[in-house]
Amino acid sequence: MARVRQARHCRARSKRTGRPCGAFAVVGGVVCVSHGGATFRVRVAAAQRQEREALERAMVYAEQRLAERIEAWIAERREVAGELLGKPADEVTPKDVRHCSLVYGRPDPYDPGPRLRLDRRFGPRRRHVVIRRRR
Is the pTM of this model over 0.70? Predict the structure, then answer.
C-alpha cells in the first residue's frame, strides 16, 4: 500500500511575486525540497516532529482507554456494594462502597484501580530513526 501524502504545502514565498510556493512540503516538514527541505537540519526536525505527533496520539488513546476502565471499575464496585446492601447500584454512594469494603471485605479495599498503560502498538513505529547526511 502506498504511503499517504500529507496535504501540507510549502510555506516559502517567491521574492519576486510574493506568492506562495505550490509544491508539497517534505513529510513532517514545512518547506519543499527546493526550498531547503533536503537539508540535514530540516530532515531531523521533521523526524522529531513526526515522533512527537505519534507520541501525542498514543497518549490521547491511552488516556481515553484509562477513562473507560476507571468508569467500568467504579460501576463494578457500586454493583458489588449494592448487592451487599440490598440497594440498586444507582443509589450507592462512595461512602457505602467504603463501608462495604471495610466491613465485608468486598469490594477489595486494597485494589488501587486501573493505571495508565501505554499500548506500544499505537506509538512510533520505528524505534531509532537514523538520518544520514548526504555527501
Answer: no
